[in-house]
Design brief:
Distance between the termini: 76 Å
Helix content: 10-25%
Structural class: alpha+beta
Strand content: 35-45%
Order of helices and strands: HEEEHEEEEEHEEEHEEEEEHEEEHEEEEE
Oligomer: single chain
Length: about 325
């Protein structure tokens, strides 16, 4: 019997290769689609029931309800109803379902930590101002005076540029060298949950404002610049204490080594210790050095007294000086990881 002609064998092999490639393509496509669907489900679950300050406004609380309802009071008052759906890795599309503005859409783009979002509003021309997430209890973390104290004296890389160091001075001055060189002076003040408004006081650009929206752990901010059309690039904190604050936010410790005195260094800067709270003492904490935290009392009782915590290199325990400065803090180990 004669062997099959070479062209016939090549043709058969080609068909086999094509079939294998098509099958592989289908498999990869199905796997990718399955992965995307899984990611969308996870993001949906993470966002369900969360509340946000729409356009950064404390009086405009948005809830992304379970089931897909987009709940915003002033839209409801105008007869606008809408639904939300995850449409990308950090993206949500809001679609109007009411007759009014029917089928118009807005896009929300979330940061990596799901702490805030920006995006485009229904008209697609207007950028959504950074909209921070509300805490699980629906309340802001720190009172205005506490947040002012927490931020006073801190330095930041404006628009993320290492050579543009901004200082939020304790006297309320917004100090940025290149602004000063242009004759621009400004002040800053806390105007909301994790929000600071910067107001120009010089004749040049007088009364223009910028808005800074801080992350939950106050390690960086974004916002809108003076022209309101430009988003402020992520601007991280400069001081060495910020790195320590990132590592310590949310951790718990046995105050003075006592099992029944659990201290919580909250991510929003609150120093939470039950027996202090029972005595009406409130306080905040700040990273003030590579291994140092300063605790400052904000309540009328013992107001402005400070304690200093000095952590070991592995961040497994701390000692330091208590509020009266004469008493050493007994070694206080970390609870859990």
């Amino acid at each position: 019997m004669n062997a099959p002609h070479l062209s016939i064998r090549v043709s058969a092999m080609t068909r086999l290769v094509v079939c294998l490639l098509v099958s592989a393509g289908i498999w990869v496509g199905e796997a990718t689609a399955a992965g995307n669907a899984s990611d969308a489900r996870e993001l949906t679950k993470a966002l369900e029931g969360t509340k946000w300050l729409w356009h950064g406004k404390e009086d405009r609380v948005l809830e992304l309800r379970k089931g897909g309802k987009f709940d915003l009071d002033d839209w409801a008052q105008q007869g606008i109803s809408a639904e939300w759906k995850v449409t990308g890795p950090k993206e949500v599309t809001v679609t109007v379902v009411s007759q009014k503005f029917r089928d118009l859409t807005a896009t929300l783009v979330f940061d990596d930590g799901l702490n805030s979002f920006t995006g485009h509003d229904l008209d697609k021309k207007r950028v959504i101002t950074p909209s921070p997430r509300l805490g699980k209890n629906g309340q802001g973390g720190l009172a205005q005076a506490e947040l002012t104290k927490l931020l006073g004296g801190t330095q930041w890389h404006w628009h993320g540029k290492p050579d543009r160091v901004l200082e939020l001075r304790k006297d309320g001055t917004f100090q940025l060298d290149d602004w000063a060189q242009q004759g621009i002076t400004a002040t800053w003040r806390v105007t909301g949950q994790r929000e600071v408004t910067v107001t120009v006081t010089s004749q040049k650009f007088k009364n223009l404002t910028a808005t800074l929206i801080f992350t939950e752990d106050f390690s960086a901010f974004t916002g809108t610049d003076l022209d309101k059309n430009r988003i402020i690039a992520v601007s991280p904190r400069v001081d060495a204490g910020a790195i320590l604050a990132l590592n310590l936010g949310g951790t718990r410790w046995l105050w003075h080594g006592k099992q029944d005195r659990v201290l919580h260094l909250r991510s929003d800067g609150r120093f939470e210790l039950d027996d202090w709270a029972q005595q009406g003492i409130t306080a905040i904490w700040q990273g003030t050095g590579p291994r140092e935290v300063t605790v400052t009392v904000t309540s009328q009782k013992f107001r402005d007294l400070t304690a200093t915590l000095i952590f070991d290199d592995a961040l497994t325990s701390f000692t330091g000086t208590d509020l009266d400065k004469n008493r050493q803090i007994v070694r206080s180990p970390r609870v859990g990881n």
